[in-house]
Design a protein that fits this description.
The chain is mainly α and 181 residues long. The chain is built from 5 helices and 2 strands. Helix 3 packs antiparallel against helix 4 (91-145).
Length: 181
């Protein structure tokens, strides 16, 4: 992930350099060029598709989360029984309950780790798909609005060239149109 981010920053820097050179060339030719900048992080966080993806992931993993909660409740019941009755239990019964608690803790930890790992894998898959979709939608917006160049992850961009809000509005409008149909 870190390598991908540094690669994105390097491409962003290269794109910015190209933009500056293009602007210089355009000014030399006395033509105008339309440049926009989007905040990709903000688009990913606020795009309507993001909420849909997160809701879908929550629904997908809800049964496993409920199972984990059930395991946790059962383990807690065994621990309470042990604390309450350990002094009156026979040695063998106490040892069996201790083993069940230990095994339950290990199973709970393993199930929790598997759930987190599976959730992270699915979340990364969906995030990759979402990023791809957002890039395509930004390109569509930029073409339709007559932009010559759109950058993301700029070091600085004035509000005059920041088109993030307009792109978000187009996402929401497109989403409303597809939901209404």
């Amino acid at each position: 992930m870190r390598r991908m981010q540094s690669g994105m920053h390097a491409r962003g820097g290269l794109a910015l350099l190209c933009a500056l050179l293009t602007v210089g060339a355009a000014q030399a030719q006395n033509t105008s060029i339309k440049i926009g900048v989007v905040n990709m992080s903000q688009l990913i966080e606020q795009a309507p598709q993001s909420q849909s993806v997160m809701a879908q992931l929550r629904d997908e993993f809800a049964p496993r989360q409920r199972e984990l909660t059930s395991m946790q409740t059962a383990l807690q019941t065994k621990q309470e029984t042990y604390q309450r009755d350990a002094s009156v239990m026979g040695a063998e019964e106490r040892a069996n309950l201790e083993r069940e608690i230990r095994d339950g803790q290990r199973d709970l930890q393993r199930a929790d780790n598997e759930l987190r790992e599976d959730f992270n894998i699915r979340q990364n898959e969906e995030l990759t798909n979402l990023q791809r979709t957002i890039v395509q939608q930004v390109q569509t917006y930029a073409r339709g609005a007559g932009f010559d160049l759109v950058l993301y992850e700029a070091v600085y961009a004035s509000e005059a060239v920041d088109i993030t809000a307009a792109v978000l509005a187009s996402f929401q409008a497109a989403r409303s149109n597809t939901d209404g149909q």
